[in-house]
Amino acid sequence: MLKGNKTIIRAVEEDDIQDLYQWYNDQEVNLWSSGAWPLNTLHNKEQIAAKFLDGGPDIYRYSLLTENEQLIGSIGFKDINVPARSVSIYIVIGNKSYWGKGYGTDALITFSRFLFTQWNFHRISLDTWSENTRAIYAYQKVGFKIEGRQREARFVLGSYHDSILMGLLRNEFLELHGTKDYKVTGNL
């Protein structure tokens, strides 16, 4: 389990599936997390359970909780490139009452610190769609920089939008956030 200042990141448990199921089938959550409503959503509970509990090759998913251990979303990484020591991450705050309150930023700082110091990654990347300005701002607070734009790569609610590609290097992150406040308990 990883502990940040406001968040806890732990392995997904079976009791988490009901909330994850609701969030992955919520139009507003999916609109802002991926811009892909409803094309990659509308999963049944068994599909969500398989996705989160059984995992897949090189995809690591975790539950995201408040400091009071209330489940509010998920975070994870994929696309591991061993020679380049790079990885892609994602975060979804499914509980809308926690949007805009710094939980995502705290989780990203905690998770990035873990990936840079424990997994020894050199680079973390992510992408979002151009209208997701709240997420872009949060990513920039963590230290991510816009590295590119794929023109009209996302189709969201009947319109094309650019995909924004962002990246963060280990030295940039450590310069900004250091390794302080990093706590690991048990297994992740």
Question: Would you tell me the overall average pLDDT?
Answer: 86
| Low-confidence segments | none
H and E order: EEHHHEEEHEHEEHE
Helix fraction, binned, reads 25-40%
From the spread of the alpha carbons, the general shape counts as globular
Count of alpha and pi helical runs = 6
Could you say what the CATH topology is called?
Answer: Aminopeptidase
Q: Report the CATH C-level class.
A: Alpha Beta
When the domains are counted, the total is 1
CATH architecture: 3-Layer(aba) Sandwich
- For the report, how would you describe the main beta sheet? 9 strands, mixed
Got a strand count?
Answer: 9
Structural class: alpha+beta
Tell me the strand percentage band: 25-35%
**Fourth CATH level, the homologous superfamily:** Gcn5-related N-acetyltransferase (GNAT)
**End-to-end span in angstroms?**
5 Å
Rg is: 16 Å
Strand order, biggest sheet? 7-8-6-5-4-3-2-1-9
Write the SSE topology.
Elements: E1 2-3, E2 7-11, H1 17-24, H2 27-33, H3 45-54, E3 60-66, E4 71-81, E5 86-93, H4 103-117, E6 123-129, H5 133-142, E7 145-156, E8 159-169, H6 170-177, E9 183-184
Parallel strand pairs: 5-6
Antiparallel strand pairs: 1-2, 1-9, 2-3, 3-4, 4-5, 6-8, 7-8
Helix pairs in contact: 1-3, 4-5, 4-6
What do you see in this structure?
The protein has 188 residues and is of the alpha+beta class. The chain has one domain: Gcn5-related N-acetyltransferase (GNAT) (Aminopeptidase), CATH 3.40.630.30. The chain is 31% helix and 35% strand. It contains 6 helices and 9 strands; from the N terminus they run E-E-H-H-H-E-E-E-H-E-H-E-E-H-E. It has helices spanning 17-24, 27-33, 45-54, 103-117, 133-142, 170-177, and strands at 2-3, 7-11, 60-66, 71-81, 86-93, 123-129, 145-156, 159-169, 183-184. It has a 9-stranded mixed sheet with strand order 7-8-6-5-4-3-2-1-9, sandwiched between helices. A hairpin with a 4-residue loop joins strand 4 and strand 5. Helix 1 packs across helix 3 (45-54), helix 4 crosses helix 5 (133-142) and helix 4 (103-117) crosses helix 6. This is Acetyltransferase, ribosomal protein N-acetylase. GO terms for molecular function: acyltransferase activity, transferring groups other than amino-acyl groups. It holds the Pfam family Acetyltransf_3. Keywords: Ribonucleoprotein, Ribosomal protein, Transferase. Residues 7-171 form the N-acetyltransferase domain.
